[in-house]
Write a sequence for this structure.
């Protein structure tokens, strides 16, 4: 919540310069979740953003959970959209919902829509009817946040702290093999290669976002193969990664939210195994978007990408991170973060032209950071 507090402070400065749009009645904002709350991750982060706007502004909020069955998502979203007398802004997200919103937002021209975690295809008239002129979309540079997670994982795995071995092996468990998840992984692998070009990564996909048992089975196998820290990018399935880490006295990296802090509320022993989380700050982005809407400056009809400089992504630096992480490793993470912000390092991505597109499993020698030295980075010689 420290990150959200910082964003709140920055936004308050903006609101002094740009007075909020006057509202005769409270603004009504509804969030449509293509899943369920309680994932301790992505959707819970979105809900914190909803709570933040309700706390800060004269706004009435509501959240509709569509459940985990994709067959219900289109009809559920369209049903909520059709109840246009109950909201002023409708917020939804994830790539599975793009076409549903894109094809229908124009039916409600006096309403505003916000979409997170995927860009609207504004230039594709076959998908985005009337150019989705009343839809603002935001994406997150998950490759940048995961780059920091990779730096951290590669440093931890050979740190010789209790619970690690001397093999330079790290793991990653994705929910499904889709572009956005692969974007996490290519950044993660690049960060690891910067620390140690000999790092090996084991990658596997659970095939489901709500199958902790499957993710636990995969993670246990990764630990058997020599990995001692595993990055979970699997939504609700990621709970199984944490269970495996606790059972085997190994380590994990969470995703989207500060998962160690959340898990600590019910299982502090398991939380100690989650050394950090790659943060996709959906909460910050929702607060930012609604604030800009109130100012009248939100660029509807376009998409923005929020990376490390915008507070869109990062890694958690909580009490568990502080307790488990040496000063040297903390310095590595800080140096890598500064290098991305300053443009000294370009993090690879799958979302680019075909000839520049990164792929999961790319050899360290074939990355743009090949030949770069973490020592030079920390000395400021790059």
């Amino acid at each position: 919540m420290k990150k959200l507090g910082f964003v709140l402070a920055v936004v308050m400065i903006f609101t002094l310069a740009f007075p909020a749009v006057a509202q005769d009645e409270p603004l009504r904002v509804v969030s449509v979740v293509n899943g369920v709350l309680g994932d301790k991750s992505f959707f819970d982060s979105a809900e914190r953003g909803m709570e933040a706007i309700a706390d800060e502004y004269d706004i009435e909020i509501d959240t509709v959970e569509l459940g985990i069955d994709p067959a219900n998502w289109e009809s559920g979203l369209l049903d909520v959209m059709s109840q246009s007398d109950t909201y002023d802004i409708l917020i939804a997200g994830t790539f599975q919902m793009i076409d549903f919103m894109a094809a229908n937002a124009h039916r409600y021209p006096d309403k505003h829509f916000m979409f997170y975690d995927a860009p609207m295809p504004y230039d594709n008239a076959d998908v985005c009817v009337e150019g989705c002129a009343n839809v603002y979309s935001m994406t997150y540079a998950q490759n940048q946040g995961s780059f920091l997670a990779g730096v951290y994982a590669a440093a931890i795995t050979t740190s010789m702290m209790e619970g690690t071995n001397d093999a330079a092996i790290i793991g990653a468990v994705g929910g499904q093999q889709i572009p956005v998840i692969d974007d996490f992984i290519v950044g993660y692998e690049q960060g690891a290669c910067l620390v140690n070009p000999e790092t090996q990564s084991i990658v596997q996909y659970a095939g489901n976002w709500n199958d902790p048992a499957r993710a636990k089975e995969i993670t246990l196998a990764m630990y058997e193969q020599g990995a001692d820290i595993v990055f979970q990018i699997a939504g609700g399935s990621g709970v199984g990664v944490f269970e495996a880490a606790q059972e085997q006295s190994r380590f994990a990296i969470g995703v989207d939210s500060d998962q160690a802090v959340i898990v600590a509320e019910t299982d502090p022993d398991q939380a100690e195994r989650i050394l950090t989380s790659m943060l996709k700050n959906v909460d910050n982005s929702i607060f930012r978007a609604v604030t800009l809407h109130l100012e009248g400056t939100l660029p509807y009809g376009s998409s923005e990408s929020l990376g490390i400089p915008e507070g869109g992504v990062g890694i958690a630096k909580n009490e568990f991170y502080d307790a488990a992480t040496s000063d040297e490793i903390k310095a590595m993470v800080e140096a890598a973060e500064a290098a991305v912000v300053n443009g000294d390092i370009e993090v690879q991505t799958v979302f680019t032209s075909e000839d520049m597109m990164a792929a999961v499993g790319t050899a360290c020698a074939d990355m743009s950071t090949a030949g770069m030295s973490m020592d030079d980075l920390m000395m400021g010689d790059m």
Summary: The radius of gyration is 21 Å. The chain has two domains: 2-140+282-306, 142-280+317-379. The chain is about 40% helix and 20% strand.
